[in-house]
Design a protein that fits this description.
By secondary structure, the chain is an alpha+beta fold. It has helices at about 35-50, 60-65, 190-195, 265-275, 330-335, 380-405, 415-430, 435-445, 445-455, 465-470, 495-520; strands at about 1-10, 15-20, 25-30, 70-75, 75-80, 85-90, 95, 105-110, 125, 130-135, 135-140, 145-150, 165-175, 180-185, 200-205, 215-220, 240-245, 280-290, 290-295, 295-300, 305, 310, 315-320, 350, 360-365, 455-460, 460, 480-485, 490. The strands form eight sheets. A seven-stranded mixed beta sheet has the order 6-10-11-25-8-7-9, with no helix packed on it. Strands 1, 4, 5, 14, 15 and 16 form a six-stranded antiparallel beta sheet that branches. Strands 2-3-13-12 form a four-stranded mixed beta sheet, with no helix packed on it. Helix 7 (about 415-430) packs antiparallel against helix 8 (about 435-445) and helix 8 (about 435-445) packs antiparallel against helix 10 (about 465-470). The chain is globular, with a radius of gyration of 25 Å.
Length: about 525
C-alpha cells in the first residue's frame, strides 16, 4: 500500500469530543481521530462530485472510504520538533515516583515488558504523553489545550434567555499546533486522494460555526511504499522466543458472543486469525493494558454512534515461548492489516517486537511557552481564571479517582464490620486530610482484623500493604494532571504543599470508595 503523509496545522481550536468530563462539558481527544479526517475528506469528495449523498454501492466510494483493506485514515498525532509523527506512550513504561520529568536532564524509565534486572523502588506509570526518539533520548510531547466557556442561546433571539442560559465549556485542542496523519491506500487511488487534499483549508470536528475546526493542510509529501509507522525494518525485529505486541491506537475487539469488550486475551485471538497460527498464553506479568470508551457522531443521521469499550493505545502484551517463530512477512502483514474493527478510521494499529530496551533515558521536549490567547491583564480576571483552573484541576482529579476505582477489586473475605470501620475513620480524617488517623487504626488492629487486612488481596498486593503505600505516599497513585485557562496554568505538582494536602484528601476518598465498592459487591 502507498502512504500519503498528511500534516495539519490548527488555525482554530479543534473539538474532537471524547467521553471525558461532566455533562456540561466537551473534552477533546489529545489527537485528531482518523474518523474525523475521513469524514472531512468524504465531504470534499461529495462537493467535488456534486453529490447530495454517497452511493454506497459505488466501487470507488467503498474502496476510498469504507473498505479497511483498501484505505485507512490513521490518527493525527502531534508532530515532534524533528518533524516526526509521535506515538502514544507504552503502558509498560514506569519511572520512580520521586523522579520528575524536566526538559533539561533525562531520567531513567523502565520497560516492565522486558526481562528486568532492576526495579525502581516505587514504580509509577509515566503518564499520558506522546513520544519520539531523538538522538538516543526519548522526548515526551503533550498537546496544548484551550478551555472556552459558552452559554446556551435561543436560536431565534440570538441571546441567552431564562429557559436557555446554562453555562457549558469546551476543552479543545489549541490553535497553533501541528499534527500528522497517514493515509494508507492502493496505488490507483493515490492521485484521487491527493486531489482531495489539494485545497489547504479544511474544517475538522464540532462547533465549526462557533470558531472551531479551521485547519491548514501542509502540501502532502509524495506517496511512499516503504513507510513504517515505527521506523524500524521488520527484518530487524524477528525473534524466535518472544512476540511483543504494542497497540499504536485504540483497538476495538469482539468476543465469541459478538460483544465488544476490552479484553487483552482477544489480542491473541486476533493475531492467530490474521496469521493462521497458534500462540502460547501471554507470559506472567506480560500484560499492560487499559480500557476506554469509543463513540463518534454520524453527520448523515445527525446522531451519536454507540459507545463501545476498547483497549487503549499504548497497551502492551508479551508472548514468550521457544516455539515462537514470527517471520518478516508475518510482521509486515500484521502491521499493515492491523487488528479489530473500524480499521479504516485508524483503529487497531499495532507494532510487533518494537520495544527492546530495558532502560530508557527520557525528558520533556522543550516547547515554546507562548499561548495563542492574549494574557489576562485585569487582576480580577486573573484571579477568576486561577479559581476556575484550580476547580478544574480538582474535577480532573475526581475523574481520575473514578477511573482508578474501576481497576481496583478487593478479594472476598473482608468482613463488613472492618470495611465499615475503615470507611468511618477515613471519613473522620477527610476534612483535614489527616492520613495519620487511618494509619493509627491499621497499626492498632486486633489480631483477627489484622489477619484479614494482610490476607485479603487488592490487585496483586495485600490490602494492608496497598493501604500503607497510599497513606505514606498519597501522591504516588496520581499521574500528572494539568489544566489551562487563557495564560493561567495549573498542574498537580505546582504548589507541592497545597497539592500534597489535596492528594491526602483524595487518597482518603479512594480508600472510602474501595471499601464501599467491596461492601456493595458483597451485598
Amino acid at each position: 500500500m502507498k502512504a500519503i503523509i498528511l500534516t495539519l496545522e490548527t488555525q482554530q481550536p479543534i473539538l474532537a469530543t471524547s467521553f471525558q468530563g461532566d455533562p456540561n462539558s466537551d473534552v477533546s481527544y489529545p489527537y485528531i481521530p482518523g474518523s474525523m479526517i475521513r469524514g472531512a475528506i468524504i465531504g470534499r469528495y461529495m462537493r467535488q462530485h456534486h453529490l447530495s449523498e454517497l452511493d454506497l454501492t459505488n466501487d470507488e466510494v467503498k474502496r476510498l472510504f469504507f473498505d479497511a483493506k483498501s484505505t485507512r485514515y490513521l490518527n493525527a498525532y502531534i508532530l515532534s520538533q524533528k518533524n516526526q509523527r509521535t506515538l502514544p506512550i507504552p503502558l509498560s513504561w514506569f519511572k520512580d515516583k520521586d523522579a520528575e520529568f524536566t526538559d533539561n536532564i533525562p531520567i531513567t524509565v523502565y520497560d516492565f515488558s522486558i526481562k528486568k534486572r532492576e526495579y525502581p523502588e516505587t514504580p509509577k506509570a509515566v503518564g499520558e504523553y506522546f513520544w519520539a526518539k531523538e538522538g538516543g533520548i526519548v522526548k515526551l510531547y503533550k498537546e496544548k489545550r484551550r478551555i472556552n466557556i459558552h452559554n446556551f442561546r435561543d436560536r431565534k433571539k440570538g441571546r441567552a434567555t431564562d429557559n436557555q442560559g446554562e453555562l457549558f465549556r469546551y476543552e479543545a485542542l489549541d490553535a497553533g499546533q501541528t499534527f500528522q496523519s497517514i493515509i494508507l491506500c492502493e496505488d490507483d487511488d493515490v492521485e484521487t486522494i491527493q486531489n482531495l487534499l489539494a485545497e489547504p483549508n479544511i474544517w475538522l470536528g464540532g462547533s465549526q460555526s462557533a470558531g472551531y475546526g479551521h485547519t491548514k493542510i501542509i502540501p502532502p509529501q509524495p506517496s511512499s511504499t516503504n513507510w513504517s509507522e515505527i521506523g524500524i525494518p521488520a527484518e530487524d525485529r524477528e525473534n524466535d522466543e518472544v512476540l511483543s505486541i504494542t497497540l499504536l491506537s485504540d483497538t476495538l475487539l469482539r468476543n465469541d458472543q459478538g460483544q465488544p469488550v476490552a479484553d487483552p486475551s482477544l489480542i491473541k485471538q486476533a493475531i492467530e486469525d490474521v496469521l493462521n497460527i497458534t500462540l502460547p498464553q501471554p507470559k506472567p506479568g506480560g500484560i499492560f493494558t487499559s480500557s476506554t470508551l469509543i463513540g463518534g457522531f454520524n453527520r448523515k443521521w445527525g446522531l451519536p454512534l454507540p459507545q463501545v469499550p476498547a483497549l487503549t493505545a499504548g497497551s502492551v502484551i508479551v508472548f514468550e515461548s521457544e516455539d515462537i517463530a514470527i517471520t518478516t512477512e508475518q510482521i509486515k502483514l500484521l502491521e499493515v492489516c492491523g487488528i479489530g474493527e473500524r480499521r479504516e478510521d485508524g483503529f487497531g494499529r499495532i507494532a510487533v517486537n518494537w520495544l527492546n530496551d530495558e532502560y530508557i533515558q527520557v525528558k520533556l521536549a522543550k516547547l515554546s511557552s507562548t499561548s495563542s490567547l492574549p494574557p489576562l491583564r485585569s487582576e480580577d480576571s486573573r484571579l477568576l481564571a486561577e479559581q476556575m483552573a484550580q476547580r478544574l484541576l480538582e474535577q480532573k482529579l475526581e475523574q481520575y479517582l473514578q477511573k482508578q476505582l474501576g481497576y481496583l477489586n478487593l478479594d472476598e473475605g473482608m468482613s463488613n464490620s472492618q470495611l465499615s470501620r475503615l470507611q468511618s475513620v477515613a471519613r473522620q480524617a477527610l476534612p483535614n486530610g489527616d492520613c495519620n488517623l487511618v494509619i493509627s487504626l491499621l497499626n492498632n488492629l486486633p489480631s483477627n482484623a489484622k489477619n484479614q487486612f494482610e490476607r485479603i488481596k487488592l490487585g496483586n498486593k495485600s490490602f494492608r500493604k496497598q493501604l500503607d503505600e497510599w497513606l505514606e505516599n498519597p501522591t504516588n497513585w496520581i499521574n500528572s494532571i494539568e489544566v489551562k485557562i487563557a495564560d493561567v496554568e495549573r498542574k498537580f505538582d505546582d504548589d507541592r504543599a497545597r497539592q500534597d494536602k489535596l492528594a491526602e484528601k483524595y487518597t482518603l476518598r479512594l480508600i472510602m470508595a474501595v471499601a464501599k465498592k467491596a461492601t456493595k459487591e458483597k451485598n
